[in-house]
Amino acid sequence: MRSKLACAVLMAPFFLLLTAVFLVPVGTAVWLSFFGADQPGLGFGPERTVFVGLRSYVAVLSDPTFLNSMLTVVLYCLIYIPLMVVGALTLALLLDSGVAKLRSWAQMGLYLPHAVPGIIAALIWLYLYTPGISPIIDLFAKADIRINFLGVDTVLPSIVNIALWSNLGYNMVIFYAALQAVPREVLEAAVVDGAGPVKQAVRIKAPLVRAAIVTVTMFTLIWALQLFTEPVLLNQSSPMISARFSPSMYIYDAAFTRNNYGLAAAASVILLAFTIALSYGVTRWTNRRAAR
Amino acid sequence: MRLSRRTFLAAGLTAPLAACSTPQRRGAGGPVEITFWSALRGSQQVVDAFNSSQNRIRVIFQQIPSGLQGGYVKLSNAARAGNAPDVATIEYPQVPGFAIDGVARDITDLVTDGLRRKLLPQALKLTTFDNRMFSVPLDIEPMVLHYRADLFEQLGLRVPRTWDEFAELAKTVRDKDSAKRLVLFPTDGAMQFACWAWQAGAKWFDTAGGTWRVTMTDEPTRKVAAYWQRLIDDDLVFRNAVESRQSDAQIGQGLVVTRLTGAWDAGAQMRARPGQKGKWRIAPMPVWDEPVVGTHGGSTFAVTKDCAQPEAAMEFIEWQVSHPAALTARLKSGTSSQYPVAPGLVETGSKAFPREYYGGQDVYQLFKQEADKVRDGWVWGPRMSATQRVMQDGFARAGAGRTTLIEAVREAQKGTMPDLKALGLSTEEGER
């Protein structure tokens, strides 16, 4: 009895927060997506709230700008996630192998960008990307290389770059921690069997931190699908980033510049469903591979 | 325990909210207070003039960012929270949107016949939907051709009267000086493009059948798009954003020889580049066959749903749009050259607007002649800011050679329809 009570008390904050910051907003979004403040005909009459069924969902899914934003974010994930996972893992393995000198300094230097808030990071990069004020572009120009970081084709890689800069160190720390848990006797056995440092890293260590790789991939995926801060900021200096560049930006635009809350809510629910489905897919896929 | 905590939180939350709500209107005896938001330059001077002209109504003015820079979002959010200002400035393209959202109230019964008679009917039509009027126009801005008289003389050019002549001239300018171009195609200029389509007889939105009929790629629009596409493809025009340092440089260094913008821009140009005094002149916008034009810019005043004193608000609006002192105050600020919707004010404007910058030209007489040529029948759509943005996203890519202008317009229509449908409006799509 006593332990049950303790359990309830200890769990309560979690469930309270889950309800307040997740279930209630999701419920509101779902509700909003099924109702509309309608006026008949041209729309100049008095409003009344009516149940509109799937109308907002049909509108979102028939909106080429929304589908484009989904396509953009998928493309972003395809570039960003492999680079992030492989990059962070490589760095962690390098640190772990002892090849790298000044290990703690390197670790801190790599981690530091993560402590910079996303909006500040985007501002820093905005400065570095903007022609006319960027020292980097000036430097390239001196070597007679003309580069436009915010052009049609370069804008997505530029955003990937900001995200990598911010998050590489963080994920590296997760991998590094996981590597510390790899049993030393396994590594000693590998050495005895004649495995060099590269073979050790690729064949022994990496497979042993699989769980961490899956976790990092999943978190990165969920984070990436919500792409918002960087493009919103870059939007101010590049016409190649539209107001509906990513799904999150589409939702923001629908709610706050188009005053179309039903549309925004429906798009949010679609993005949520998409994220859940994709995360579930990744888990299932990795679990099946683990079972084999 | 939890209850007291909640009340504590509630008290903490309401205190700052109360502090930022609109000031309370004074009781009987004192003047009625009216709050007014505007992004228009010179508004403070106009409000000061109004406040000192009488003592029954006191207007409290707040300068807000221009519409697409956040002004409209601010207004919508304030209205949603129930504390919109009594009077708000809304540009023509956004009037139907704010009317549909219920922010701009139906003022049909508040507008007196006297006021109606003072204003140009072609402007009133743009703020009237479903036979109901939603805002009072302040200025109507026919597009005009601003040109560098000195460069025209130097290069031996003649002011073009038709679009064919204009295209010819574009070639001449490029051939005579490869660094110069006749004009800029603004990749952030969906409103300029709309004006050209309007002039050619396009009807992007039509409400005649009691339903929003959207046809953004009608024959006139296709003609205009093809015309500019050819100028772009032949490298006869600059193609970048007009709101950019690049464009500032093009104008500042005399690389661009003409500018196509609304009448209001004469004042903005004067303020932005005092050094080019005496070099510019203004001519009518080129035409196709019929002597008609479209408008670019222009503002209206709406009484919002949150206004408690609509009559007082309307009195202030009427004064702003039709009293000579209002126009004088605005022009005295030295930054405006708005063309008033009240023809009775043209003389005032003509006198108050300094003529030196345009080499002594009486630009107001030109504006008057052009305002009478505004083509009848144009209707703005219910979500014009969004339509504009999608179109400009396309224009930016068209400027980089990745798509075409007409494709950008088509995308704008496709990106607008879901919005209108989700709002529950009755819609219909024309060819696209």
TrEMBL record, chain A:
The keyword DNA-binding does not apply. It is found in: Cell membrane. The keyword DNA-binding does not apply. Residues 70-282 form the ABC transmembrane type-1 domain. InterPro entries: ABC_transporter_permease, MetI-like, MetI-like_sf. Pfam families: BPD_transp_1 (PF00528). Its main location: membrane. It is a multi-pass membrane protein. Coiled coil: none annotated. CDD domains: TM_PBP2. The chain crosses the membrane at residues 73-96, 108-128, 208-228, 261-282. SUPFAM superfamilies: MetI-like. Signal peptide: none annotated. Keywords: Cell membrane, Membrane, Transmembrane, Transmembrane helix, Transport. Belongs to the binding-protein-dependent transport system permease family. This is Sugar ABC transporter permease. It comes from Lentzea flava. The lineage of its organism: Bacteria, Bacillati, Actinomycetota, Actinomycetes, Pseudonocardiales.
TrEMBL record, chain B:
The keyword Iron-sulfur does not apply. Pfam families: SBP_bac_1. Keywords: Cell membrane, Lipoprotein, Membrane, Palmitate, Signal. InterPro entries: Bact_solute-bd_prot1, SBP. The keyword Cell membrane applies. PANTHER family: ARABINOSE-BINDING PROTEIN-RELATED (PTHR43649), POLYGALACTURONAN_RHAMNOGALACTURONAN-BINDING PROTEIN YTCQ (PTHR43649:SF33). This is Sugar ABC transporter substrate-binding protein. It comes from Lentzea flava.
